[in-house]
Write a structure and sequence with these properties.
single chain, alpha+beta, Alpha-Beta Plaits, two-stranded antiparallel sheet, 4 helices, 8 strands
């Protein structure tokens, strides 16, 4: 279904999945603060959330990530814009002078919006990183293993099985 075929209105609710990742400071607290902002600022109704996972980054540091499943009343473009506002706010909380050679310290990504397939220069739904990142697929396996990727027509389980060289993703607290 395309964005223009959807019945947006005050009572319509749409099922979405978001990925959150924090790579500096109090990572768990940052993820929790972000979820609260999503609930308060854009009125997401959280349906389910994954455990926290640790992912080894390129610079041998560990990020913490999670996925949430929620309902939204916002259309995709507006939701994407609001997500980026929150992501930029979360990113701004870090003192850039203390952190050298760091990439994004906080990421918030729209993964799925119902079964919508939408592509533009600004964003894609489903998110184009889904089939390439264990850090997205492993948390999705926890809460939606049978979810079908609307463009690739494969389940989350199958996409994970097809990963050629997945990065290491560990349940938070088990990395010893």
């Amino acid at each position: 279904m395309t964005e223009h075929q959807r019945p947006f209105g005050n009572n319509a609710k749409f099922n979405i999945f978001l990925s959150l990742a924090s790579s500096y400071g109090d990572k768990i607290s940052s993820l929790q603060q972000c979820v609260q902002l999503l609930k308060d600022k854009i009125k997401l109704e959280i349906i389910n959330s994954t455990s926290f996972y640790e992912v080894e980054s390129l610079n041998n540091t560990w990020s913490i990530c999670a996925v949430i499943n929620a309902f939204t009343k916002l259309p995709p473009k507006q939701l994407y814009h609001e997500i980026k506002v929150i992501e930029n706010f979360m990113q701004s909380l870090y003192d850039k002078e203390e952190i050298n050679n760091s990439n994004k310290l906080f990421e918030l990504e729209l993964l799925f919006y119902e079964d919508l397939v939408y592509e533009s220069n600004n964003f894609n739904v489903p998110n184009k990183n889904i089939p390439m990142k264990a850090s997205i697929l492993v948390p999705l396996l926890e809460i939606a293993p049978d979810l079908i990727h609307p463009k690739l027509e494969k389940s989350i389980t199958k996409l994970y099985e097809l990963l050629p060289n997945p990065e290491q993703v560990l349940l938070y607290g088990t990395n010893v």
